[in-house]
Amino acid sequence: MSTRPGSPPPGLPPPAERGATVIPERVVARIAARAARTAQSRRAAIPPDRSGPAAPSASAAVRTGSVRLHLAMDLPYPTDIPHVCERIQHDVAERVTQLTGLEVGEVTLTVRRLLTVADASQGRVR
User: Fold this and answer.
1) HEC profile of 45-84
2) What pLDDT was estimated at residue 45?
3) How far apart are CA 63 and CA 118, in angstroms?
4) What interhelical angle do 81-100 and 25-44 show, nearest 10?
5) Residues 6+ apart with CB under 8 A from 1
6) Low-confidence residues of the chain, pLDDT below 70?
7) Which of 84, 104, 82 has its CA nearest to residue 94?
């Protein structure tokens, strides 16, 4: 017995009736944190391999196919804070949507601290 390509095997319900893929909030938050680290490096010139307290953090609230994200990160000083934050928010929202299929309804970003060139090279603020 042969089936057409793309059609479900005999005995299986159509894909829409089989269920849904659920991505836990902590997984979405980890994806957002990784995307924020990449965006921080690209938009704010902070090395992406930073770990510890200076690394971006993220939390996510997933509701019916959409997600709200909250990011916290450090930015270099001086910088155009509103512009850089807007670009990072856009980059993170785009990447999370691309990887999860969830619609990103909101991305809030908290700047934890501003780092001078000396602080960024040392990895901490004194």
Assistant:
1) CCCCCCCHHHCCEEEEEEECCEEEEEEEEEEECCCCHHHH
2) 77
3) 42
4) 140
5) 10
6) 1-9, 47-53, 117-126
7) 104
